[in-house]
Amino acid sequence: MKKLLAPLLSLLVLTFASSLASAADTAPKSVIHVVTLAWKDGATPEQIQAALDGVKALPAAFPGITHVWVKSIKVQNAKGIEKPKTHAFVMEFADEAALKAYADSPAQKEWYKTYLAVRGQSTTFDITN
Predict the structure, then answer these.
(1) 69 CB burial (10 A radius; 0-12, 13-18, 19+)
(2) Cα 123 versus chain centre, distance
């Protein structure tokens, strides 16, 4: 019986440790910066692509940005909305401090030269655990 108890106890500890690690993986401390937007009237496809390409370049310009997403697969707007949102992008920041440091940073100011010229309306959510 004692021979069986030690392996069983070890298995129980490993299972518990594994479930704790899994919970940590699903609740990261990074910050997700989600932006949905409608472009200005008259924004050309080239200008829109340049703004989205600028998002893709941000991790190289600002180390606190760890990942970006720019390809909208599905866009759902509320009926009757005056200016529907057509695109979204997401930036993942290492943590809240990185998000705060990004505001008014040289990287943001440089990208804004392209982005603000064509951004119409946008909604932003900053989300973390």
Answers:
(1) middle
(2) 14
Q: Residues 81, 123: contact at Cβ < 8 Å?
A: no
Cα–Cα separations (whole angstroms), residue 119 to 80, 110, 113: 21, 15, 11
pLDDT: which is higher, 129 or 26 = 129
pLDDT the model gives residue 9? 46
Domain 28-127 has CATH 3.30.70.100: yes
Report whether 94 contacts 7 (CB < 8 A).
no
- What would the pLDDT profile of 14-63 be if each residue is shown by its tens digit? 555 555 555 567 889 999 999 999 999 999 999 999 999 999 999 999 99
Q: Average pLDDT, whole number, for the chain?
A: 88
- Domain-wise residue ranges, the chain: 28-127
